[in-house]
Design a protein that fits this description.
Elements lengths: L30 E5 L4 H14 L4 E7 L5 H14 L3 E5 L4 H8 L9 H18 L5 E5 L11 H7 L4 E3 L10 H10 L6 H4 L16 H10 L1 H18 L6 E5 L2 E5 L1 H13 L7
Parallel strand pairs: 1-2, 1-4, 2-3, 4-5
Antiparallel strand pairs: 6-7
């Protein structure tokens, strides 16, 4: 049954909506929970932890948004078998489009209710039931980059009362290709979305936090996924009678909604112009 509570890996700030936790007297941990997104960062965090503490007390915790690329689950199973750690899948039961209709809000890059309801709440509820804060640690695989490092303090604060560790943040910044090479060195085939040019392995490439470039890439690579998103966006606009869109365009310091239908028409026109390439 869909959760009715209000945001395991994307928008850290939304976890602040949870009540302030009571003080906790921490003990030696006997439960190590990887907040596994299906991406390279959390996978390497799991590999790192398996080498340090062994698999016996570990859990790979992932939330199913119902729109993941099938290869994410192949990758998740490969990782689970390699490190001999069970994969625990939690879910709200809705996909992002069903959720947007239920909450009456079309997600965008500023606020993503899908992250809150489909990922963070199911993961937190599982932690509450199975991983006591006193004896558990949550591990988050944010990548060692200038963009991701500043997220660590807010993640730590907002996942309270659980302790949080970031296995990848020691050492220098590293590009995505280096991280993917580490996966291959462990005998893991990276998720195909990376090889297809997507920066993340979430929501099948149709993440509503993505910018115009990624949406155009989705149109080129997975036109059927783009078409579904376009239909869902238009249905929401029509049903709610609101001029809203996942994307926006700012010109002369004025922002306006940019629908996926409009972006598609522009991108198709660009590709038809002589000397123009898609991108």
């Amino acid at each position: 049954m869909p959760s009715t509570v209000s945001p395991c890996d994307d928008t850290d700030e939304e976890l602040a909506l949870f009540p302030a936790p009571p003080p906790v007297r921490y003990q030696d941990p006997d439960r190590h929970v990887i907040q596994f997104s299906g991406g390279v960062g959390s996978a390497l965090a799991a590999l790192n932890l398996a080498e340090r503490v062994g698999p016996a007390r570990m859990t790979l915790l992932i939330a199913d948004t119902q729109v993941e690329d099938p290869d994410l689950w192949r990758f998740a199973d490969d990782l689970s078998r390699l490190i001999k750690v069970p994969l625990v899948v939690v879910e709200d039961g809705r996909d992002p489009w069903q959720l947007f209709n239920d909450v009456g809000f079309l997600g965008n890059n500023l606020f993503a209710p899908c992250t809150k309801y489909l990922k963070q709440i199911p993961c937190r509820e599982w932690m509450t039931q199975h991983a006591p804060p006193e004896t558990s640690i949550a591990y988050v695989g944010i990548e060692p980059t200038r963009k991701d490092r500043p997220r660590a303090p807010s993640i730590t604060r907002n996942w309270a009362p659980w302790r949080v560790e970031f296995p990848l943040l020691d050492g220098p910044d590293r590009p995505k290709e280096d991280l993917l090479a580490d996966l291959r060195a462990h005998g893991l085939k990276p998720p195909r979305l990376y090889e297809m040019g997507f920066p993340h392995n979430n929501c099948g490439g149709s993440c509503i936090r993505a910018g115009q470039r990624q949406w155009k890439h989705l149109l080129d690579v997975f036109p059927e996924r783009y078409a579904r998103a376009e239909r869902e966006e238009e249905a929401f606009r029509s049903h709610r009678r609101k001029n809203v869109a996942i994307l926006k365009r700012t010109r002369d310091k004025v922002a306006r909604p940019l629908t996926l239908a409009e972006l598609r028409r522009e991108h198709e026109a660009e590709k038809e112009r002589p000397g123009m390439t898609a991108g």
